[in-house]
Design brief:
This protein has two domains: 3-30 and 65-148, no CATH class; 34-64, no CATH class. Helix 1 packs antiparallel against helix 2 and helix 2 packs antiparallel against helix 3 (112-148). It starts with a helix and ends with a helix. It is elongated. The longest helix has 37 residues, at 112-148. A two-stranded antiparallel sheet has the order 1-2. The chain contains three helices and two strands, in the order H-E-E-H-H. 62% of the residues lie in helices and 5% in strands. By secondary structure, it is mainly α.
């Protein structure tokens, strides 16, 4: 393997790792703020800041954002969120393959075999992007139909 190809693969790996970290940081890393954990009822019968009164107890409010996986109410919501995360991964991977195919095609340098390989990679990656977009749209339509009874 030539030194230039090795450098390109290392740069590509670093860019892919940074892209994945940036893409999924919102799904897994939610801010957590310090709160008073006493959970006692005040003299006026209400809970302190950061707590909700539930069945005679002061329960700590959720520290997770409402869009996080940890803050799902039903199994249906959990499955929907997991599917959307998987589709995000698949979409990112398809875009990476678009870049790889374009690189192969551009750097073919008159080599018909390499150019054909690049064209096939571009075609398959484009099909992948279209499938991911259609799957995402289908999931949104089904979720809205089941949850709300409407498509918009």
């Amino acid at each position: 393997m030539s030194l230039n190809l090795l450098k390109i693969k290392m740069i590509f790996g670093a860019v892919l790792a940074a892209l994945l970290l940036f893409t999924f940081s919102g799904y897994f890393f939610n801010p957590v703020f310090a709160q008073n954990a006493t959970g006692t009822v005040n003299q006026n019968g209400s809970c302190g800041t950061g707590f909700t009164y539930v069945n005679g107890l002061c329960v700590l409010n959720s520290q997770f954002s409402k869009d996080s996986i940890a803050n799902t109410g039903t199994i249906f919501e959990l499955i929907t969120k997991v599917l959307k995360i998987m589709l995000t991964l698949a979409g990112a991977l398809a875009v990476v393959w678009l870049v790889i195919g374009g690189y192969q095609y551009i750097t073919a340098g008159g080599n018909d075999e390499q150019a054909e390989k690049g064209r096939k990679t571009l075609l398959n990656a484009t099909i992948g992007v279209v499938v991911v977009i259609m799957a995402y749209a289908l999931i949104n339509v089904v979720v809205n139909l089941v949850a709300n009874g409407k498509t918009g």
